[in-house]
Design brief:
The complex is a heterodimer of chains A (411) and B (287).
Chain A lengths: L1 H19 L13 E7 L6 H17 L3 E2 L2 E9 L4 H14 L4 E3 L4 H14 L3 E2 L16 E2 L9 H10 L5 E5 L4 H16 L3 E6 L9 H4 L7 E4 L5 H11 L6 E3 L20 E4 L8 H13 L6 H19 L7 H9 L11 E3 L5 E13 L2 E13 L7 H6 L13
Parallel strand pairs in A: 1-3, 1-4, 4-5, 5-6, 7-8, 7-9, 9-10, 10-11
Antiparallel strand pairs in A: 2-3, 11-13, 12-13, 13-14
Chain B lengths: L1 H31 L6 H18 L4 H22 L8 H23 L15 E4 L2 E4 H23 L1 H11 L1 H6 L4 H27 L5 H16 L4 H21 L4 H15 L11
Antiparallel strand pairs in B: 1-2
The chains are: A alpha/beta (411), B mainly alpha (287).
Chain lengths: 411, 287
């Protein structure tokens, strides 16, 4: 392997010498840099996740010395501002002006939905964290790949753990009033109820809610409250939850107890369960190295946004190795991307299903206070979780996508 | 029963916070006719400054709140003195400048404090809940009500019983005439702007144990201040006070009783007031 790399480097080097000597040679495709564009959010309320995304991929590229499959990497980062119009503009810029070979990102589902048609038309492989279910289910995009998780994917293990291990029978869900919230809680409800539990109420505060107390006041007696908040909202929610004197245990998904939020949480988050496709306490050499290198750049732990982008980098790297560094044939590139199967990533082994969604390990964790600091400690590992959980794919796709009213509450 | 009580206390708390935020907004608008769109940013800036004093310099919560109020007041005075003064009379330019500053403040905060939310610990002694007659009262929220009441009383005294207050009232009622009788209206402008900014900054810090501090806090608070002022009427403290409590109650009970129509309930009174009584419930003149 290393010999091959060296030979390619040698060829690239001699090509450079040759052109320097003014030989009229056409540029050699394989020696040109491979261009990776990142759609992220560096301004506005979504910026904390967006910055983590950039730091995650830069950590990976630095470790690889900005060289993948023998080709130099040209990395271009674009700030969408966290809105659909910005995402569209920047995606066009990356494709038409910068002529990137891959786009990583964007962060939010509404950004993704704004560019999905354009990406399919431009035939540029897109590796996103945005969780919208139907992107890999009922309305798949052949140029799309998701190595993180779809909205409900982390909630399946959470609901399973809540019913089977913790023995909870009744739950109340609370999430922002938008698609990511509906899809997370739909998934939680389906598994929670199929395991014999019952969801008593589903509450939907608007995305921008300064004070959750009016919603907290509506929570009936239950065994567990499942919160699906994202961004900075989980911090505020937990604080107000404890201020209101509520004592029911809390569980949540990947955004609710993200490692990147640990330094922001107060003691009220102590004891909260959450399920995530990545965990900082996974004790593997690659994860330890990822965290150490990440912290050279950022004053925080890497959360799942950072880890997601790091893994995206690994997927691109593995696919490029398969094609021998070629990116020109987009169909072959996509086939290579989707057939990537990695055992050694910071989140454990991953592979992709035929829709391009990840099948990978999920971690149910509990936040515990140790030596005055909050930490996520894994309490159960669920390997090989698919976006369909244990359900039959055909049956699953025949059901409507999770929404505000689906699945309905049982009376 | 405890649900209603919790909601009621919460409504008054939110009303108190909104009063601190909107009193300055209302005075600035009443006196200078400037719809100050940086007001939400001043709130956020106060929260960030205060949180930093507590987290980085380990200052006492109340000292941090006062310091951040002073800092934000100074910032407000600078905005008025350096920018808005040059645009006197040109409302559109003022709107655009204050909007522009609010974006700049948001980016500045993101740069300095990154996007990670900061949770400010409730001051010691006010944590937890107080059981009373079998009901549970969050202590800090009660304290916020008390603080808002004290500030309201102080403002009242300032406006109604001092020379400065008389000048402000004169300026609100008829700026030209005030100038004619020898009031230095431009200095008054700077002072009122600083006062309003300081109040907003103070409110930000006082609100931070409840709301936490995060990018986007400015945009969350500004519409609420706008609704309060439109409802209560500009340039009127009583209007701000009543408007704040009306909004506090509508916000809390609206979300609890008809969550689907929460925003409808919140903004309906604004629409009604704008159509039926454009000067607001207690306003002195139409905006």
């Amino acid at each position: 392997m290393s010999i091959k790399l060296n030979r390619r480097k040698f060829l690239a080097g001699s090509a450079a010498v040759a052109s320097a000597a003014a030989f009229p040679m056409p540029s050699i495709a394989q020696s040109a840099p491979v261009k990776i564009g990142l759609l992220t959010v560096k301004t506005g309320p979504l910026a904390s996740g967006g910055l983590q995304m950039e730091q995650g991929i830069v950590t990976f590229l630095k470790q690889k010395n900005y060289t993948l499959a023998g080709r130099k990497v040209d990395f271009i980062s674009a700030d969408t501002g966290g809105n659909p119009a910005g995402a569209k503009t920047k995606a066009q810029e990356l494709v038409e002006l910068n002529k990137v070979d891959f786009i990583l990102g964007p962060l939010a589902a509404f950004e993704l939905l704004a560019i999905t048609d354009y990406i399919a038309q431009a035939k540029t492989p897109l590796l996103s964290l945005a969780a919208a279910e139907d992107m890999t289910q009922r309305k798949p995009n052949p140029y799309f790949l998701r190595a993180s998780a779809c909205s409900a994917q982390a909630m399946y293990p959470m609901a399973d753990y809540a019913t089977k291990v913790l023995g909870y029978k009744t739950a109340v869900t609370i999430s922002e009033d938008f698609a990511f919230g509906y899809e997370q809680q739909g998934g939680f409800q389906r598994v929670f109820e199929d395991n014999g539990g019952k969801v008593l109420a589903k509450l939907w505060p608007p995305l921008v809610t300064a004070d959750y107390t009016p919603y907290l006041a509506q929570i009936p007696q239950c065994d567990v409250v499942c919160q699906g908040f994202a961004g900075s909202n989980p911090v505020r929610f937990m604080k107000q939850y404890s201020d209101a004197g509520l004592k029911y245990p809390v569980c949540g998904g990947e955004t609710a107890g993200d490692d990147a939020l640990l330094k922001s949480f107060g003691d009220e988050a102590n004891g909260m369960y959450n399920s995530c496709p990545y965990t900082v306490d996974l004790d593997t050499p690659i994860n330890k190295r990822f965290i150490a290198d990440f912290q050279k750049m950022a004053d925080n732990l890497p959360g799942f946004y950072a880890a997601g982008l790091y893994v995206n980098g690994q997927v691109v790297d593995a696919a490029l190795e398969k094609t021998g560094g070629k990116t020109s044939d987009k169909t072959a590139m996509m086939a290579a991307l989707r057939s990537v199967s990695l055992t050694n990533t910071p989140r454990g082994p991953i592979k992709f299903d035929h829709f391009g969604n990840v099948i990978g390990t999920f971690y149910v964790r509990q936040i515990v206070k140790e030596n005055g600091k909050l930490n996520n400690r894994t309490v159960k590992t669920y390997p090989g979780v698919s976006q369909f959980w244990t359900y039959d794919e055909k049956w699953f796709l025949d059901q409507p996508v999770y929404s505000r009213d689906y699945p309905p509450l049982k009376s | 029963m405890s649900l209603w009580l919790l909601l009621a206390i919460n409504s008054v708390t939110l009303g108190g916070l909104l009063f601190l935020l909107s009193a300055g907004f209302s005075l600035i608008f009443g006196l200078m006719r400037i719809p100050n769109l940086t007001h939400g940013s001043l709130f956020m800036l106060g929260a960030y400054f205060g949180a930093s004093f507590v987290l980085w310099f380990h200052l006492d919560f109340w000292l941090a709140a006062l310091l951040s109020a002073l800092l934000v007041a100074a910032f407000g005075a600078a905005i008025e003195f350096l920018l808005l003064r040059r645009l006197a009379g040109s409302t559109l330019a003022q709107v655009l400048v204050t909007l522009g500053i609010s974006f700049m403040v948001a980016d500045f905060c993101l740069m300095v404090w990154t996007g990670d939310p900061i949770s400010v610990a409730t001051p010691a002694g006010l944590r937890g809940t107080a059981p009373f007659l079998g009901l549970v009262f969050p202590i800090y929220r009660l304290a916020v009500i008390l603080i808002a009441a004290i500030i309201a009383a102080l403002l009242w005294f300032l406006i109604d019983n001092t020379r400065l207050g008389a000048m402000i009232r004169a300026g609100v009622d008829d700026p030209q005439m005030a100038r004619v009788v020898g009031i230095r209206v431009s200095r008054l402008f700077t002072l009122v702007f600083a006062l309003g900014a300081g109040l907003a900054g103070f409110a930000g810090m006082i609100g931070s144990p409840i709301l936490s501090v995060y990018p986007g806090l400015d945009a969350d608070m500004l519409p609420l201040a706008l609704v309060v002022v439109i409802l209560g009427g500009t340039g009127s403290l009583l209007g701000s006070l009543l408007g704040s409590f009306i909004i506090g109650f509508l916000y809390n009970f609206g979300q609890a009783l008809v969550p689907e129509l929460a925003y409808f309930v919140l903004f309906l009174p604004m629409v009604l007031v704008l159509t039926l009584r454009p000067q607001g419930l207690f306003g002195r003149h139409a905006p």
